[in-house]
C-alpha cells in the first residue's frame, strides 16, 4: 500500500510538479504569441505521455525521455513566444543553469537518505528537495527579470545575484568536503543518522537563505519604487511650478503684444506718410527695417506642441533673458513624450542648468543653444554654451551639495535608457549631448 502511494506521489511530482515550475517561469518572463494556455498544454502533455511510456517501458527510457522533453521545451519557448531570440536564449540559459545546479544540490542533500531509507522514500525526498529549491530560485530569477525589463531596477542591481550565488557555492563546497572526507557508504547506524540530520539541516539553511534573499530583494525594489515615486512627485511639483510661470509669462507676452500692435500701427502710418506725402523712401525703409527687427525680437514662448518641453524651454529662455544670455532652441519631437515625463523633466532641467551656469564664468558673448530631436529609435538633447574653463566633474554653484550631481544624473539616465551622455569642449564652445533609446513594446 505504502509503495503504491509513493509511486503515485513520485509520478505526480515528476510528471506535473517539475514541468509546471518550468512552465510558470517562462510564462512569467515572456510574452506568448497566441493563447496563454498553449505552451503549458504542450509541455505538460509531452511530460505526461513520456512518463506513461516510461512506466510501460514502450519506446522510451529515462535518457531518451529527458532528451525529447527538453528538446520540445526549448523549441516551444522559441516558437510559442514572441520575444526577441536573444531574450529567449538568455531565459533558457538561466532556467537550465538553475535547474541543473539545484538538481545536483538536491542529490547532495539526499545522499544520506538514499543510504538510510528505502528507494521509493529517498527518491521522493530528493525530488521534493529539488522542487522546493528550483521553485524558489526560478521565482527569484523571474521577479528579477521582470523588474529589469520594466526598468524598475538598473544594471547596478545585478550585484544582488552575488548573494544567492555565494550561498549556493558555500553549500557546494561544504557538501563536497563532507562527502569526500566521510563517504555515506562507509558509515552506518547512528553516524549515518547524524549525517542525515546534518545534511537536512544544511539544506534547510540554504532554503531559508534563499527565502531571505527573495525578501531582501523585494524590499530593495520597494525602496526603489518609493524613490521613483518621490522623484515623480518632485517632477510633478516642478511641472506645476513651470505651468504657473508659463501662465504668468503668457500674460506678460499678451501685454507686450498689445504694445507692439499699438507701436506697429503708429509706425505704419508714419511709413505711409513718408512714402506718399514726403516721398522720403530711404527714411521709410530705415523705419520699416527697425520695425521688422522689433517684430523678430518678440519671444512667442512657443517651441513645440509638447507642453512639458515647451514650458521648460520657455522658463529657461526667460531666465536667460534676465541674465543677458542669448537663448536659441530648435525642437522636433512628437506631441506626446516618448520618454517618461518625470525623467525627461529632470534631464532637460539639469542639462539646461549646466549650460546656463557655464555662462556665469564668461566675459564675452553669452549664449545657450538647444537642439532636441527624435529619430526612429532615439531622442537626443544637445546644448552648446561658451566655455568658461569649468571642470565638468564639479559644479560652480554656491550650493554644490545640491547641484554637484547634475552630470552624474544625466549619465545615470543615459544608462537607464541604453543611450550615451557626452560632454566636451572645442574651439571655445562646450557641447553636451544625451541620447536616450525610446522604449517600445519590443524593447521596453
Low-confidence stretches: 393-404
Number of helices: 12
Beta percentage is: 5-15%
CA radius of gyration is: 34 Å
Number of strands: 5
**What profile does the largest beta sheet have?**
5 strands, mixed
Compute the separation of the termini in Å: 54 Å
Shape descriptor reads elongated
Q: Which range best describes the helical content: under 10%, 10-25%, 25-40%, 40-55%, 55-70% or over 70%?
A: 55-70%
How confident overall, as mean pLDDT? 78
**What is the SS-derived class?**
alpha+beta
In N-to-C order, the SSE pattern is HHHHHHHHHEHEEHHEE
Spatial order of strands in the largest sheet: 1-2-3-5-4
Describe the model.
It is built from twelve helices and five strands. The protein is an alpha+beta fold and 444 residues long. Mean pLDDT is 78; it is low at 393-404. It has a five-stranded mixed sheet with strand order 1-2-3-5-4, covered by helices on one side.
Amino acid at each position: 500500500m505504502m509503495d503504491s502511494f509513493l509511486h503515485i506521489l513520485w509520478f505526480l511530482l515528476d510528471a506535473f510538479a517539475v514541468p509546471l515550475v518550468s512552465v510558470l517561469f517562462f510564462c512569467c518572463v515572456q510574452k506568448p504569441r497566441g493563447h496563454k494556455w498553449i505552451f503549458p498544454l504542450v509541455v505538460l502533455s509531452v511530460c505526461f505521455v513520456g512518463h506513461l511510456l516510461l512506466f510501460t517501458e514502450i519506446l522510451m527510457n529515462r535518457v531518451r525521455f529527458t532528451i525529447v522533453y527538453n528538446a520540445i521545451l526549448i523549441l516551444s519557448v522559441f516558437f510559442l513566444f514572441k520575444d526577441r531570440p536573444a531574450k529567449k536564449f538568455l531565459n533558457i540559459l538561466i532556467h537550465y543553469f538553475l535547474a541543473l545546479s539545484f538538481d545536483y544540490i538536491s542529490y547532495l542533500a539526499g545522499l544520506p537518505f538514499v543510504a538510510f531509507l528505502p528507494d521509493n522514500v529517498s527518491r521522493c525526498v530528493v525530488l521534493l528537495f529539488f522542487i522546493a529549491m528550483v521553485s524558489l530560485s526560478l521565482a527569484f530569477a523571474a521577479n528579477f527579470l521582470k523588474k529589469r525589463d520594466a526598468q524598475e531596477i538598473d544594471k547596478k542591481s545585478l550585484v544582488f545575484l552575488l548573494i544567492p550565488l555565494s550561498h549556493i557555492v558555500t553549500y557546494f563546497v561544504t557538501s563536497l568536503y563532507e562527502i569526500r572526507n566521510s563517504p555515506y557508504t562507509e558509515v552506518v547506524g547512528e553516524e549515518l543518522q547524524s549525517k542525515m540530520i546534518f545534511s537536512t539541516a544544511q539544506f534547510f539553511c540554504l532554503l531559508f537563505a534563499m527565502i531571505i534573499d527573495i525578501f531582501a530583494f523585494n524590499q530593495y525594489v520597494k525602496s526603489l519604487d518609493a524613490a521613483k515615486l518621490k522623484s515623480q512627485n518632485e517632477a510633478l511639483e516642478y511641472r506645476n511650478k513651470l505651468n504657473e510661470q508659463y501662465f504668468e509669462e503668457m500674460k506678460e507676452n499678451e501685454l507686450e503684444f498689445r504694445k507692439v500692435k499699438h507701436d506697429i500701427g503708429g509706425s505704419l502710418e508714419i511709413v505711409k506718410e513718408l512714402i506718399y506725402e514726403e516721398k522720403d523712401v530711404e527714411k521709410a525703409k530705415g523705419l520699416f527695417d527697425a520695425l521688422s527687427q522689433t517684430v523678430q525680437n518678440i519671444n512667442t514662448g512657443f517651441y513645440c506642441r509638447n507642453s512639458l518641453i515647451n514650458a521648460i524651454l520657455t522658463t529657461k529662455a526667460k531666465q536667460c533673458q534676465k541674465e543677458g544670455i542669448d537663448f536659441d532652441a530648435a525642437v522636433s519631437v512628437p506631441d506626446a513624450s516618448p520618454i517618461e515625463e518625470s525623467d525627461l523633466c529632470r534631464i532637460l532641467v539639469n542639462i539646461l542648468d549646466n549650460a546656463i551656469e557655464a555662462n556665469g564664468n564668461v566675459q564675452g558673448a553669452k549664449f545657450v543653444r538647444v537642439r532636441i530631436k527624435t529619430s526612429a529609435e532615439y531622442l537626443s538633447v544637445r546644448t552648446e554654451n561658451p566655455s568658461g574653463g569649468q571642470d565638468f566633474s564639479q559644479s560652480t554653484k554656491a550650493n554644490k551639495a545640491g547641484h554637484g550631481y547634475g552630470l552624474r544624473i544625466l549619465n545615470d539616465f543615459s544608462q537607464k535608457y541604453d543611450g550615451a551622455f557626452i560632454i566636451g569642449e572645442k574651439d571655445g564652445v562646450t557641447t553636451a549631448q544625451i541620447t536616450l533609446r525610446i522604449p517600445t513594446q519590443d524593447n521596453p
